[in-house]
Amino acid sequence: MASGADDRVTCAVLIIGDEILSGRTQDTNLRDIARYLNVIGVDLAEARTVPDVMDEIVGALNALREKYDYVITTGGIGPTHDDITADAVAEAFGVELFEHPEIIAMMEARFGDQLNAARRRMARVPVGGDLVKNPVQGPPGFTIGNVFTLAGVPQIMRGMLEDVGPRMRGGRPTVSRTVRVEGSGEGAIAAPLEVVAKAHPDMSLGSYPFFSPDGYGSNLVIRSRDPEALTGVIAELIAALKAAGIDNVREIDVA
Amino acid sequence: MASGADDRVTCAVLIIGDEILSGRTQDTNLRDIARYLNVIGVDLAEARTVPDVMDEIVGALNALREKYDYVITTGGIGPTHDDITADAVAEAFGVELFEHPEIIAMMEARFGDQLNAARRRMARVPVGGDLVKNPVQGPPGFTIGNVFTLAGVPQIMRGMLEDVGPRMRGGRPTVSRTVRVEGSGEGAIAAPLEVVAKAHPDMSLGSYPFFSPDGYGSNLVIRSRDPEALTGVIAELIAALKAAGIDNVREIDVA
């Protein structure tokens, strides 16, 4: 469960792009954002992927920004006709777009008289919005209200993320520890795991099975915002597994 | 745009699992499902990722099965306490779960007296549901109404998909062709691309930029259900690009 803590700060991700829904592009931004948010103690609570269609983007963005503390969007901020994310964010907030002078200045410095209409589209920001720094390449992203609008290109998105975290009201970081079971499948592990999980509803216990040449096994991951309590639960889980006759159990480091 | 055709058949994907939202696991099922649906002519219209939380799964599933022709869920059908997808699907449809005799028979054959309560959880199917074959390993998935519930483990999910397509009312397959531009960035490509896109609203034109040692470039992907019309548009696009002074243009095979 990602839920539990009262100080929970939530974020949703809205992935925008036909290329994801067509299967042409493998999204990796969701995982990268999730890992980034973990470290600052913000829970990624939901993700949605929608096509480059105005009504779909606006509808999803309004649903998510209402339900969660923050929303991060990725994709659709390039110069081509199918990049309508800025238009959709402005529509969702009921504001106009304007050409941000800082972006125009960057573009004039780079392109000079090659600064055409398509490139100028990338300078458009919703009225009331601020810029999100792009330390990698190309124009910045922007933020308005509780929404952060980032690029879709992974290396650029990751760079922009560095300017997002400091603006979020973060909870405490989540600590994750992993107990590895070898030679036993989930079917055997489930009962002792469930006993420990039910005894600690404030923690997240997940079982991630694998199949190795040596047979079945599973990595049991426990996540908590309380490192000291986590240490006790790790010992409790290992004891419960061994009491169930599962002997090949050890904590591993997957940091 | 994924939209356009009147004979459009739509599907949404609901990815269920804390491990995706925690960033621990990189989802690849969405891409694989998208590519599978393309071939049978079904449009993947939206995807959502939710945690292993009953209310979140039920809410998302009911929203998606109402809005689209089909919904495919992945994940949360294992034996452990955190696998609640079957419970959530039954809840969404307002029916009970029952132990499917075919699955119990498979499990008895495999596990004998090792068929414990945890494993029996994987035999539970919503009343009114049918099985989805699992040609890989472990118990089958199930389908009820317009929802298909598949495993989260990618190789098992892909195997189960083979039993999903034949049950869908598919449109015509979508054909995809790609024009590669090298030495010019999206900023230069955007204008001619937009002209061609606006002239053919029934087709999907996307620009997917890359950065190579030789500089900027982009793959321009055109998707249509009409292969003959697509051939004409490819020629039209290449002519428009060259007329804009973009010479390093050729069709490539990305099949």
Features:
homodimer, 255 residues, alpha/beta, Molybdenum Cofactor Biosythetic Enzyme, Chain A, Alpha-Beta Plaits, 2 domains, six-stranded mixed sheet, four-stranded antiparallel sheet, 9 helices, 37% helix, elongated
Structure explained in plain terms:
2 copies of one chain form a homodimer. With 255 residues, chain A is of the alpha/beta class. The first copy, chain A, has 2 domains: 9-167, MoaB/Mog-like domain (Molybdenum Cofactor Biosythetic Enzyme, Chain A, 3-Layer(aba) Sandwich); 175-252, Alpha-Beta Plaits, CATH 3.30.70. Chain A has 9 helices and 12 strands. Chain A has helices at residues 18-21, 29-40, 54-67, 85-93, 101-111, 117-121, 154-161, 186-199, 227-243; strands at residues 10-16, 43-50, 70-74, 97-99, 124-126, 130-132, 141-144, 147-150, 175-182, 204-212, 215-224, 249-252. In chain A, strands 2-1-3-8-7-6 form a 6-stranded mixed β-sheet, with helices on both faces. In chain A, a hairpin with a 2-residue loop joins strand 7 and strand 8. Mean pLDDT of chain A is 91; it is low at 1-5. The interface between A and B is large, with 68 and 67 residues. Strand 2 (43-50) of chain A pairs antiparallel with strand 2 (43-50) of chain B, so a sheet runs across the interface.
The coarse silhouette of chain A is elongated
Strand order of the largest sheet of chain A: 2-1-3-8-7-6
CATH topology of the largest domain in chain A: Molybdenum Cofactor Biosythetic Enzyme, Chain A
Query: Which chain pair shows the most residues in contact?
Result: A-B, 68 and 67 residues
Order of helices and strands of chain A: EHHEHEHEHHEEEEHEHEEHE
Any idea how many domains of chain A? Answer: 2
Helix content of chain A: 25-40%
Strand content of chain A: 25-35%
Tell me the name of the CATH homologous superfamily of the largest domain in chain A: MoaB/Mog-like domain
Largest sheet geometry of chain A = 6 strands, mixed
The oligomeric state of the chains shown is homodimer
Uncertain ranges of chain A: 1-5
Domain MoaB/Mog (chains A, B): 12-171
InterPro entries (chains A, B): CinA, FLAD1_M, MoaB/Mog-like_dom_sf, MoaB/Mog_dom
Protein name (chains A, B): Competence/damage-inducible protein A
Pfam families (chains A, B): FLAD1_M (PF24102), MoCF_biosynth (PF00994)
